[in-house]
Specification:
10% of the residues lie in helices and 46% in strands. The chain has helices at residues 5-8, 60-66; strands at 13-21, 24-30, 36-42, 52-58, 68-73, 79-84, 97-101, 104-107. The strands form two sheets. A four-stranded antiparallel β-sheet has the order 1-2-3-4. A four-stranded antiparallel β-sheet has the order 5-6-8-7.
Length: 110
């Protein structure tokens, strides 16, 4: 994760990169009370603090049913959206989404 970003997302641990969505960086993470989190980071110059990040977390039951989703938008019109999926996910993702990795679905480009 870009330097400075993780420090601002207090409480997230075991952060790992899982892919990209619309130019945004997508990470899986854990939080003490919510074990499944997706983090979307819009790149910028971390040293200048001009990056944007958003996250969403879920408990085990919710995550097992449908994963966890988040969307983030920056001031320059940049945006990113991602759906973190459980290992061996065999369900269907919603219309307008495509699975692009073992744990990642992203919006279909129009």
């Amino acid at each position: 994760m870009p330097e400075g970003v993780q420090a601002s997302l207090e409480g997230l641990r075991e952060v790992r990169f899982i892919g990209e969505s619309e130019g945004a960086l997508v990470y899986a993470a854990q939080q003490a009370d919510m074990p499944w989190c997706v983090v979307v980071v819009l790149p910028g110059r971390a040293e200048a603090g001009d990056w944007t990040a958003g996250s969403s977390c879920a408990d085990d039951a919710r995550f097992a049913k449908r994963g966890v989703w988040t969307k983030v938008s920056g001031g320059t019109g940049q945006h990113g959206e991602a759906l973190l999926l459980p290992d061996d996910f065999a369900g269907e993702v919603g219309e307008g989404w495509q699975v692009v990795g073992p744990n990642l679905a992203v919006p279909v480009e129009s």
